[in-house]
Specification:
alpha/beta, Rossmann fold, N-(1-d-carboxylethyl)-l-norvaline Dehydrogenase, domain 2, 2 domains, 9-stranded mixed beta sheet, 14 helices, 53% helix, binds nicotinamide-adenine-dinucleotide
């Protein structure tokens, strides 16, 4: 039996896919709307985390932050069956992941950090990429479940390595989205149309995912959030979270990431201006209207 804690935008469809594949899943989430959605998809709903976890041989968590995770693990470590597989798919700080993994391993459980990329669409389609940190033996146990929820599984190393891969990847993504946005804005100011720049950059050395999958201007990539008012997709608030996780780790390990820091500051301003729920590619709209300093304007 699988206990699933955190049935939100990502956890809900992941749990539903496990049910579809024939697993018995007992879920818990304090948010009534999250619970209603998964109950309709065959997930058994418990009225507390402890009730969901009791007797489970696998516990999957998909929670907002490291603090939620640490609190949740107080219950999990008290309640789960001896030796249970504990699979955390949330995005949290590397040291938070390592701390819960150490507690879990000491209590005789098999912990893995397995953050994901692929967003809500990937969670729904069962095509997530899992970046896994922890023991190879625990990963072997987790593989059949990961294969239901995703299409790529990469063992990144020991506990915390999955989270390290996730924040490094997303730091590149945040920086590259800003770089792509700046290029479109500069191109427009030089009289270049968006499609022409896209046709060149997408087949030249500027090619990257921010450009070819989530193109921040409408038109060149019809499926990108820019074509639907930046609704849906990967929210700016989550990008901001990941950029700050990267900055916290960089400070802790004394690594200079000036572009990562600049990207985090730009997403701070963007979210503070009330744009947190928009797709992160909407940052282009803020860059376009960025107030100039008097010196820059003259
Ligand atoms: P979400 O806010 O939609 O879902 C999180 C759920 O956890 C909420 O429903 C909340 O009520 C629940 N929760 C909080 N405390 C709980 C507890 N103690 N026990 C059980 N449930 C609890 O967030 P999401 O978009 O599903 O993201 C979840 C995680 O996945 C985050 O760490 C996020 O950074 C990461 N992530 C999200 C995306 C995305 O596109 N949404 C992509 C990759 C990774």
């Amino acid at each position: 039996m699988i206990a699933f804690l955190g049935l939100g935008n990502m956890g809900g469809p992941m749990a539903a896919n496990l049910v579809t594949a024939g697993h018995q899943v007992i879920g818990y989430d304090p948010a009534p709307t999250a619970v209603e959605r998964v109950a309709a998809r065959g997930v058994t709903v418990a009225d507390s985390a402890a009730a969901a976890v009791r007797g489970a041989d696998t516990v999957i968590t998909m929670l907002p932050t490291g603090q939620h995770l640490a609190e949740c693990y107080d219950t999990v470590l008290d309640t789960a069956a001896p030796g249970a597989l504990l699979l955390d798919c949330s995005t949290v700080a590397v040291n938070d992941a390592q701390a819960v993994a150490a507690r879990a391993a000491e209590a005789g459980f098999a912990p893995l950090d397995a953050p994901v990329s692929g967003g809500v669409a990937g969670a729904t389609a069962g095509t997530l990429t899992f970046m896994v940190g922890g023991d190879a033996a625990a990963l072997q146990r987790a593989r059949p479940l990961l294969k239901v929820m995703g299409s790529r599984i990469i063992h990144c190393g020991a506990a915390g390595a999955g989270q390290a891969a996730k924040i490094c990847n997303n730091m590149v993504l945040g920086i590259s989205m800003i770089a792509v946005s700046e290029a479109f804005l500069l191109g427009r100011s030089l009289g270049l149309n968006d499609q022409a720049l896209f046709d060149v950059a997408s087949t030249s050395s500027a090619q990257c995912w921010a450009l070819t999958s989530y193109c921040p201007v409408p038109g060149p990539v019809p499926t990108s959030p820019a074509n639907r008012g930046y609704e849906g997709g990967f929210s700016a608030v989550l990008m901001r979270k990941d950029l700050h996780l990267a900055q916290t780790s960089a400070a802790r390990t004394d690594v200079d990431t000036p572009l990562g820091a600049a990207a985090a500051a730009l997403y701070d301003q963007f979210v503070a201006a009330g744009n947190g729920e928009l797709d992160f590619s909407a940052i282009i709209t803020a860059l376009a209207t960025h107030p100039r300093t008097p010196e820059a304007a003259s």
